[in-house]
Write a sequence for this structure.
């Protein structure tokens, strides 16, 4: 909150506290109004990255729906890539964005968001999202539905992301639980295997050193037992895949399609003995299922330590130390060790 910096230092904590309270009350009022309206509610559409969906959006929904008494039979969840299983306990009604959009529509919607709001997160409903909501409403036979948009969650959690609140702020507005059972895989899998997913992002840039590190890690894992790649060959976000992964490991998704690619990857991860790959949002999937994860990075300035600290705290609470998310430097010996 930049305005607080204009105040004398003794007044800044009071201003920050008042700002948090104002945000919280506004969000709570909106959730309460929505729950009392008696109208059907479209939850989403969630079109963002997997990490925020698992660490923030889904836990926020669990808290909001329980705390405000939403009628779950009135809820229609909208996400993308087929993760209906993640929301089965929230609502039995799920619609996938790719039922109504082509895969290349998501990058265009992302660009629209950045152009209009200067922000890549779903802080407000865009025109394209409103069109998707209308399509879902027609398909579900809903009249004048409410929209529980991710913007409410982003608004509520901003104090934490902007370092004006500690992790307790998120925990008081979220319910963290293991994911419900995953669907069965569509491919035959080894009895015991490690799932891998390497791609390039700010934490693991596409350098020759990182390509060599990914190759070294996957081949080291292969020497210990079967390794299954989660490479999809699809481009539905701004991440760049490590092209060689599908050759260094068994291909887990031979013919992936956008509408089910997340569900297919989830089904494989849920049956793995461990997951290893790039540190990023996808690294949260395995520990959300009680599967140990080792996430690799080369640029510690390329990711938020706040997200990692919250994730490790949440996953440690699910069970013994084995279930924790471990983040390691690509050059460290433990990056390869099983």
């Amino acid at each position: 909150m930049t305005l607080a910096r204009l105040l004398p230092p003794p007044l800044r904590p009071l201003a920050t506290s008042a700002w948090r309270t104002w945000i919280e009350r506004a969000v709570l009022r909106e959730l309460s109004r929505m729950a009392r309206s008696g109208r059907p509610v479209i939850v989403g559409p969630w079109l963002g990255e997997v990490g925020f969906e698992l660490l923030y959006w889904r836990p926020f929904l669990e808290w909001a729906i329980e705390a405000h008494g939403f009628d779950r039979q009135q809820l229609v969840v909208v996400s993308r890539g087929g993760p209906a299983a993640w929301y089965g306990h929230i609502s039995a009604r799920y619609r996938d964005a790719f039922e109504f959009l082509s895969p290349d529509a998501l990058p265009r919607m992302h660009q629209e968001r950045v152009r209009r709001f200067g922000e890549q997160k779903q802080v407000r409903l865009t025109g394209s999202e409103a069109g998707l909501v209308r399509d879902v409403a027609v398909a579900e036979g809903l009249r004048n539905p409410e929209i529980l948009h991710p913007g409410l969650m982003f608004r509520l959690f901003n104090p934490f992301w902007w370092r004006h609140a500690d992790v307790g702020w998120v925990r008081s507005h979220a319910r963290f639980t293991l994911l419900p059972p995953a669907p069965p895989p569509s491919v035959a899998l080894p009895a015991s295997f490690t799932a891998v997913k390497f791609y390039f992002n700010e934490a693991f840039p596409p350098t020759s050193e990182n390509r060599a590190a990914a190759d070294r890690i996957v081949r080291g894992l292969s020497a210990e037992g079967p390794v299954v790649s989660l490479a999809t060959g699809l481009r539905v976000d701004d991440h760049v895949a490590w092209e060689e992964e599908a050759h260094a490991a068994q291909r887990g998704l031979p013919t992936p399609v956008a509408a089910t690619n997340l569900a297919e990857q989830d089904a494989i991860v849920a049956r793995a003995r461990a997951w290893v790959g790039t540190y990023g949002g996808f690294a949260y999937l395995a520990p959300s299922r009680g599967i140990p994860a080792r996430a690799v990075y080369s640029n510690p300035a390329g990711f938020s330590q706040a997200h990692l600290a919250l994730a490790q705290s949440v996953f440690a609470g699910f069970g013994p130390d084995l279930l924790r998310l471990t983040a390691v430097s690509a050059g460290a010996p433990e990056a390869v060790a099983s």
